Amino acid sequence: MRPISLDEMRESKQESGDVYRLQVLEQVPRLLSLLDRHPGSTTYGCFDRTFWHYKMTDFAGVRFQEAALTLALLYRKGSGYPPYEGNPLLKRWVEAALHFWCQIQARDGSFSEWYPGEKSFVATAFSSYAVSEALLALDDEIQCQEGVEALARAGAWLLKHDEHDVLNQEAGAAAALQNLFLVTKDRQFERGARQKIDFLLRHQSEEGWFQEYGGPDIGYLSLTVDYLAKYFQKVQDPSLLPVLEKSLQFLSHFLHPNGTAGGEYGSRNTEYLIPHGIEILAPYSVVAARMAAFVREGLEKRTLIGLYDLDDRYLCYIAYPFLQAAETSGSLSLTGIEQLPCEVENFHRYFPSAQLLVHGDPEGYLVANLGKGGTFKWFSKKGNEVLYDAGIVAKSASGTSIAGVLDPKCRVEVHPNGFRVTGSCFHRKTHLLSTWKLFVLRIVGWLSSLRAPVAFPLKRFLRRLLIQNNRGKHFGFEREVRFVEAGSVWVRDRLEKRDSASSSVLLGEKFSDLHIPGARYFTPSELFSQARKGAQVTEGDGWREWVRHFEKGRPAEVFK
Fold it and tell me: What does the mean pLDDT of the chain come to?
C-alpha cells in the first residue's frame, strides 16, 4: 500500500482512520523533542524534558515513558508511517526509553509519578500497560529481557494493591496484567487481571458509570471503557459486551451539539474522549458506532479536545490510543443508527444515582449535575451559543466559597420543566507548591522509599487536600432552573448573607478548582459562551438573590 502523506490525510474524510493518524503524526516532532536522544547521556531514553533538559525537578515522572509505545507503533513493520517505519534510529530510541523505564523502578516493583517514593498505583499500572504493549507490538523485532523482568516485578506489586476510589485505574491495571501474562506466560497475572475485572463489574453503577471520586466523570469513563475494551480485545470474552454497552449508553448523553463532551458537571471536570475503546466496540454496538463518528468529526473540526490541545505530559500519555484507534477503525455505516440524545428533538432524562439531568428541546440541550450545586452547561442546537455555569463562587473576607462541589447532602427536586437544588457552599483554597512544602514532601518521599506504609497515608492526605478539598460549609445557597420555552433557560440563585464582605459573587462562569491534571484544557466553544456576571437583584431576609434569563440569539439578561 502506498504511504499516505500528511497533506492527503488533512484532505481525507472523517470516515477513515486518517483523522487519528494525522493527530499523532503532526505531534511526533514535539514528542521526539521531549526525548533525551543522546546515547552518551545518563538519562538517555527519558521523555521527562523538565528533568533531563531543564533540570527543574529532582526525579523523572514515569508516565512520560508511556510515549515509548507511540514510537513502537510508528516503528513496527507494516505501520505505513514513513520515515518512522523500520527506522533503525527510532528502534534504538524505543529500546532506550524501555531501558530508562526499568532504571527508575523502585525495588518493590512500583513507580512514582508526582514525587519520589510515591508508589503510585496508576503510574505502575498505566506505564506497565504501555511498556508491555510495546514489547508485544515489537515481538520479533526487539529483545528486552530487562523489560520482561521489570514488568514481572511491577505485576507482582499490582497483584498486592488495589485502587477503589478511581476505578479507571483498576481497568488499566487489568489491561496491564493481561498483557503481562502474554509477555511472561505467568498465569498469576491472567488470574489477577480477571479478579480486577470482576471487581469492576461488581462496582459498575446500574446507570453504567464507574466511580471517580464520588461520581461519574466523562473523560475518565471513556478511559475506563478504553482499557476494558483493550482487555476484551485480548480475551474476546462476550460477557463484557453488555457491561461496555451500558457504559456507552450512559456516555452518549454527554456528547454535545457543538461537538464537545463532558466538562464541569462531571466529578473530575474532564472534556476529552479516549477513542480506541470506542473504535474497538463500534462493530459490536450501534451506540459505539455513532460515538465513533462523533469523535472523528469532532477531531476533524477541532471542536473536541485532541492531541493538538494537550500539554507535553498528556501528549506522552494519550498519543498511542490515537494510533491504536487508527489501526482499529473501519468504515462506519450509520444508516438506521439511532440518534445521540443531543440530536433528539425533545429529550428529558434524569440519572438519580449520578444526579445528572439531561434536557433537550428543538433549540437547545442542557446537562446539569444537581449533586454538584446545579452546575450546568447549555448548548444551542442551531448556532454557536453556549452557556457554562459551574456554580456560585462567593468571595468573602474569610476566603472563597463555592457551590459547585459534589455534596451528597444537597437537597434536590427534579420536575419535567426544571430543577431546584439547596445546599451549602464550601470553603476552597488554592494550594501551590512552596519551598518548605517541597522540602517536607521530599523528606516524606524518602521515608516512603525506605518504609512502604508511609507512602499510602501520604497519598490519601494529598488527595483529600487537592481533590477532595472541602474545608467546611460557609454560605447556604439555592439554585432553581426552569425550562420556560424552547431555547430558553431561566435561572434563579439565592445566597445566604453571612458577612458584609461576601459581595463579590461570580455567576455563569466556567471554572475548575480541583487538582485534576486532565482538566482545564481550552476548547474553542469557550469563545462563544454567553456567561455574564450577575448583578444583584434583591436583598432581604438574610438572602441575596439573582435572576438570569438565557435565550438563544440574545445576550444573557439579568432582570427582576
Answer: 86
Sign of CA dihedral 73, 79, 84, 87: positive
Low-confidence ranges of the chain (pLDDT < 50): 1-4, 6, 9, 12-15, 501, 533-535, 557-560
Dmax over CA atoms of the chain, in Å, equals 76
What are the grid coordinates assigned to 248, written together?
Answer: 456507552
What count of Cα atoms within 13 Å lies in the side-chain half-sphere of residue 244? 32
**Residues 376-396: tens digit of each pLDDT:** 999 999 888 888 998 888 877
Give me the sign of the Cα torsion angle 406, 409, 413, 419: negative
The answer to whether the CB of 490 falls within 8 A of the CB of 543 is no
Determine contact, residues 479/493, Cβ cutoff 8 Å.
Answer: yes
Nearest CA among 281, 243, 246, 254 for reference residue 340: 254
Q: Which of 225, 212, 297, 285 is CA-nearest to residue 259?
A: 297
Which has the closest alpha carbon to 329: 354, 377, 296?
296
Residue pair 438/444 in contact by the 8 Å Cβ criterion: no
State the CB neighbour count (10 A cutoff) for residue 142. 17
**Rounded CA gap, 306 and 59, in Å?**
28
Give residue 439's pLDDT: 73
User: According to the model, what pLDDT value does residue 78 have?
Assistant: 86
- pLDDT score of 345: 92
Q: Which residues pair with 376 in a beta bridge?
A: 368, 389
Going by C-alpha positions, the residue among 493, 507, 490, 501 that lies closest to residue 544 is 493
Identify whether the C-beta of residue 185 lies closer than 8 Å to the C-beta of residue 137. Answer: no
Instruction: Give the C-alpha separation, 311 to 333, whole Å.
Output: 34
- The helix/strand/coil state of 150 is helix
CA pair distance 244, 171, nearest whole angstrom: 12
